[in-house]
Amino acid sequence: MAEKKKAIHTGHRQRMKEEFRTRGTEGWPDHKILELLLFYAIPQGDVNPLAHELIDHFGSLDGVLDALPEELMKVKGMGEHSVVLLKLIPAVTGRYLEGRTGPGTIIHTAAEAGHVLAPYFYGARNEMVYVLCLDAKEKLLGVKKISEGNNTNSDVTIRRVAEECLALRASFCYLAHNHVSGLALPSPEDMNTTNVVRTALAPLGVRLVDHLVFEDGDLVSVRETAASGRKEGFRLIYPGQW
User: Fold this and answer.
1) How far apart are CA 141 and CA 134, in angstroms?
2) Pick from 145, 206, 199, 144: which is nearest to 170 by CA?
3) Would you tell me how many other CB atoms lie within 10 Å of the CB of residue 143?
4) How far apart are CA 106 and CA 116, in angstroms?
5) How far is residue 217's CA from residue 198's CA, in Å, rounded to a whole number?
């Protein structure tokens, strides 16, 4: 009986793999995608109930992938291999998208800068600060991490921003950070930081083009928010927005 059940599961796994190879995941519910992933962490047995349990517990596929490792481990049936695999997915996705927008990319707008910067904030649990550097022709020179804080704030080190810009011989730059809770709404501190960084970089021959604030798929421009005078923030639509 056990051998027959094992054969059924083996056939099911093979059918799902073949379906993915030929048609992709279009139309698949979240639990089915998660089930396919779990095949590679749990080589035997029926993982469909575990996939359903994870979706029920965290609400969606992105909720599962964004969950903390210790929270994933609390779900019965989850082990170290499964947790590592699930946390690897957003990490690899971010690296992949980062690689597709490497040095040499031309950036003319804040929306285009947001497209390049977005992968750096995928799955972030802490506030992080990055600077994106451009040459005089607005060609991407690189993206450098400035700091990482806790789940409520991250300090912007003005000296570090200047050092990274000078190291890459940047003429223009974009500052970017994320909010891990609430809205992608520039705070008074964000506005003040923007002004301080802009003032500090100007004598060095580097122009701060904008300060971008990310939060769970939203992107807000501090420059456009200040220019429009809108208290709710100025939301950008950028290429590849998810």
Assistant:
1) 5
2) 206
3) 23
4) 10
5) 26
Mean pLDDT of the residues in the chain = 84
> Pick from 163, 181, 165, 183: which is nearest to 173 by CA?
165
Distance CA 140, CA 78 (A): 41
The neighbouring-strand residues paired with 224 are none
End-to-end CA distance of the chain: 46
**Model confidence pLDDT, tens digit, residues 174-197:** 999 998 876 667 888 888 899 999
CB 183 within 8 A of CB 208: no
Closest CA to 63 of 216, 187, 232: 216
Q: Is the pLDDT of residue 150 over 70?
A: no
List own/partner pairs for 96-100 with CB under 8 A and 24 or more apart. 97/122, 97/240, 98/143
Q: Nearest-CA neighbor of 136 among 178, 158, 164, 168?
A: 168
- Do residues 219 and 180 touch, judged by C-beta distance below 8 A? no
Q: What is the CA radius of gyration of the chain?
A: 22
- The 10 Å Cβ neighbour count of residue 50 is 21
The CA-based dihedral angle spanning residues 200, 201, 203, 207, taken in that order and rounded to the nearest 10 degrees: -140
pLDDT, position 7: 52
Is the pLDDT score of 78 beyond 90?
yes
Q: Name the one residue in this structure whose structure tokens are 């802490």.
A: 126
Q: Is residue 41 a contact partner of residue 62, using CB atoms and an 8 Å limit?
A: no
